[in-house]
Amino acid sequence: MITAVDSNVLIDVLSPDPTQGRAAWEALQASRRRGPVVACDVVYSEVAGYFESPEEARRVLAKLGVRYEPTSERAALQASRIQREYHLRGGDRQRLAPDFLVGAHAIDVADRLLTRDRGFYRAYFRDLMIVEPLRSRADLDRTGFRRSVGDLTPQRGR
C-alpha cells in the first residue's frame, strides 16, 4: 500500500514538539510498514526549506523512508479542477494551489494520504483514503492509527 505524506506530518516528525512529533513519527512508521511512503514536489520543497542544504534534506527524507514522486500533468489538472470547485462553493483564499496539488498527487500515485488536515481533504478529495496521526497514546490501536467512533481513522470522504 502506497502512502503519500503531507508536509505537516513531516514537519511534526522533525519538530521538537513531544506530542505532535511522536504521533506523526508513529503514523509515518506504521505507513512504512505497509509499503512505500511518497512525497510530491510541493511537500518535498516545503520540508526541504527547513534544512541548511538540499543534500541534508535529501539525506534526512531518505532516512525517514520518504521517496520523492513528482506530480504528473494529470494530477495538476485534477488539482485545478478541484480548486475551481472549491472557489465556486465559496471557499476562502486560505487554500492555495499546493493544498490541491498534494491531494491530487495522492489520488494519482498512492492509496492514501497521511495528513493532519483531514477535514479539507475529506471534503474535496472524497475518493482519497485519509490517515491522521494521533494526538495521544490512548487513541492508538495496534496499527498506530486513531480509533474513531467504531472504526479506524483511515476513511474515505465524509
The CATH homologous superfamily name equals 5'-nuclease
The helix/strand series, from N terminus to C terminus, equals EHHEHHEHHEHEEEE
CATH domain topology: Rossmann fold
Number of strands: 8
Q: Which structural class do the helices and strands define?
A: alpha/beta
How much beta, percentage-wise? Answer: 5-15%
Strand order of the largest sheet: 3-2-1-4-5-8
Major sheet characteristics: 6 strands, mixed
CATH architecture: 3-Layer(aba) Sandwich
The domain count comes to: 1
Helix content: 40-55%
Q: Terminal Cα separation, in Å?
A: 21 Å
Average pLDDT rating:
86
Note poorly predicted spans: 136-140, 146-158
Rg from Cα: 15 Å
Put simply, the count of helices is: 7
Categorize the overall geometry: globular
Task: Explain the overall architecture.
This protein is an alpha/beta fold. The chain has one domain (3-156): 3-Layer(aba) Sandwich (Rossmann fold), CATH 3.40.50.1010. 50% of the residues lie in helices and 13% in strands. It is built from seven helices and eight strands; from the N terminus they run E-H-H-E-H-H-E-H-H-E-H-E-E-E-E. The strands form two sheets. A six-stranded mixed sheet has the order 3-2-1-4-5-8. Strand 4 (112-114), helix 7 and strand 5 (129-131) form a beta-alpha-beta unit. Helix 1 crosses helix 2 (18-34) and helix 5 crosses helix 6. The longest helix has 17 residues, at 18-34. The protein is globular. The two termini are 21 Å apart.
